[in-house]
Design goal:
Length: 208
């Protein structure tokens, strides 16, 4: 670590003094504006000096961190790719199972309705029970479950009729509007419509 305490203190003190003063600074005249500009440029110089003071340690620790992270990723990336392949195949199996179960449920519902129709209008007695032998209701298979493995549905969608989508689901492309405003300025009103363009003052500074 950079242990030059005296050098760091010499850099820190001006920061502390400036921060203590900045809350009471007013910028209401040209002279005050110039004074604030001078302080801002001085602050950028202090900022650069602080960055330079810590840069050797930052680079050294970053290089060490980056080396460890790269080594770890070289192993974990392999497991991640295998995991992706396995999960993809498992998901395809679950999808096929779901479809089989859906079709079986449809068939079971149909068979149940047929059985109910055969029973309609019949009054069974202990001596003459009604036996429905011509309708077989198939079993609906249960999903495969394995301890430690969870399967959830992440719902997605595909647009079938863009004109049928309700108005509240339409979203303005604000990124495109902002891009147009930045490019055209006040003239963007004519291109976009329904907006007001106004300047947002940003003060820049550099070392001085």
């Amino acid at each position: 670590m950079n242990t030059n305490t005296d050098a760091l203190e010499a850099l820190r003190i001006p920061f502390e003094e400036y921060l203590a003063e900045i809350s009471s600074v007013t910028v209401e005249t040209a002279e005050q504006y110039e004074a604030a500009a001078f302080g801002l440029k001085k602050l950028k110089t202090w900022e650069a000096d602080i960055a330079a003071h810590f840069e050797p340690d930052r680079k050294r620790t970053y290089d060490a961190y980056n080396a460890v992270t790269t080594a770890k990723s070289s192993y974990l990336n392999k497991t991640a790719s295998v995991e992706k392949i396995i999960k993809s195949k498992m998901a395809a199996y679950v999808q096929a199972e779901n479809e089989t179960r859906r079709l079986a449920q449809i068939e079971a519902d149909r068979a149940t309705r047929e059985a109910q129709k055969e029973l309609e209008g019949t009054a069974p007695t202990p001596e003459n029970p009604v036996v429905v032998s011509s309708v077989i209701i198939p079993d609906v298979p249960q999903p495969t479950k394995v301890a430690g493995i969870s399967v959830t549905n992440t719902w997605k969608y595909a647009i079938t009729d863009v004109n049928a989508i309700r108005k509240e689901f339409w979203v303005l492309d604000e990124a495109l509007i902002l891009k147009t405003v930045k490019a055209l300025g006040p003239d963007a009103v004519r291109s976009v419509g329904g907006i007001e363009v106004f300047p947002d003052v940003v003060v820049g500074s550099r070392r001085g």
